[in-house]
UniProtKB/TrEMBL annotation:
<keyword id="KW-0808">Transferase</keyword>
<dbReference type="InterPro" id="IPR007213">
    <property type="entry name" value="Ppm1/Ppm2/Tcmp"/>
</dbReference>
<dbReference type="Pfam" id="PF04072">
    <property type="entry name" value="LCM"/>
</dbReference>
<protein>
    <recommendedName>
        <fullName>S-adenosyl-L-methionine-dependent methyltransferase</fullName>
        <ecNumber>2.1.1.-</ecNumber>
    </recommendedName>
</protein>
<dbReference type="InterPro" id="IPR029063">
    <property type="entry name" value="SAM-dependent_MTases_sf"/>
</dbReference>
<keyword id="KW-0489">Methyltransferase</keyword>
<keyword id="KW-0949">S-adenosyl-L-methionine</keyword>
<dbReference type="GO" id="GO:0008168">
    <property type="term" value="F:methyltransferase activity"/>
</dbReference>
<dbReference type="GO" id="GO:0032259">
    <property type="term" value="P:methylation"/>
</dbReference>
<comment type="similarity">
    <text>Belongs to the UPF0677 family.</text>
</comment>
<dbReference type="InterPro" id="IPR011610">
    <property type="entry name" value="SAM_mthyl_Trfase_ML2640-like"/>
</dbReference>
<comment type="function">
    <text>Exhibits S-adenosyl-L-methionine-dependent methyltransferase activity.</text>
</comment>
Amino acid sequence: MVDTAHRNTGVEGVAGGVGVTALLVAAARAIETHRPDSLARDVFAEHFVLAAPASAGWPIHPRQVPEGDADPLWGRFARYFGLRTRVLDDFLMQSVHAGGARQVVLLGAGLDSRAFRLDWPPGCVIFEIDREEVLAFKHQVLDGLSAAPKAARVPVPMDLRGDWAGALPGAGFDPAAPSVWLVEGLLFYLPPAAETYLIDTVDRLSRAGSALAFEVKLDKDLLEYRDSPLYTATKHQIGIDLLDLFDREPRPDSAGNLTDKGWSTSVHTPFDFTRRHRRGPLPEQNDALAGNRWVFADKPRP
Ligand SMILES: C[S@@+](CC[C@H](N)C(=O)[O-])C[C@H]1O[C@@H](n2cnc3c(N)ncnc32)[C@H](O)[C@@H]1O
């Protein structure tokens, strides 16, 4: 299989635009990794942050965040990403070990290092879709660390606003076998039509017994919490205007669409998992996280 992402070793894809959000998540995971009460460990995350000029000065350790959880960006928001990482790690491990699927697709994979750090059962294949420049930067860093994946890994450089459905079977994905899909921190950057296409495509390529987890933001989140400390701190401390990067058009009801297609879905707030793990962000006033929902869906076997 041709790994086209390796041909481009530039860092432009993570230095600006939506690619820089992958560095934000990586920095959060680096900080989480070093917390004494860490929810998830990602030893690769800090290397991504340090390798990109856009993020080289960002914190990668809690001791570099003097205000701790009171820092809206590197405290509370970073902890949110730590919790999300843990919850979705658990979803993936449950889906492959108990559910039996051996194909995993990470949509908007960014600097997700799960292929390198989770204990995958034999025979697993991880497909990673993101923009070519982002995957190229990822490979540049991982190659420098001589990192070895713990499962077969297939980068699929594609823009998810386009017609990407054919790329997966072309990369070796088998629609006749059960699959697990992860859409973490992606959908709010896509136009509504691209989100609908993504959900329709996942459904079409998923055999019964497949599972999907994705994150959405309720429409009211964008309108009600635009001056929340979380968005303001992200803009002022590191120059990322998340609201500017989000697609502002009305969102489709993707959980409802899947239910209509016969999937069984459950919708959670992040705070549900904070309570379960006894660690993580709790609700507060004017909270940009209040509209976030984590959706888990299964395509039932007949
Ligand atoms: C916030 S990051 C999340 C990355 C990863 N899922 C994680 O949680 O670490 C969002 C990712 O979506 C990717 N992305 C956004 N729009 C995209 C598009 N149109 N096509 C492909 N990837 C896209 C970005 O390049 C970035 O890597």
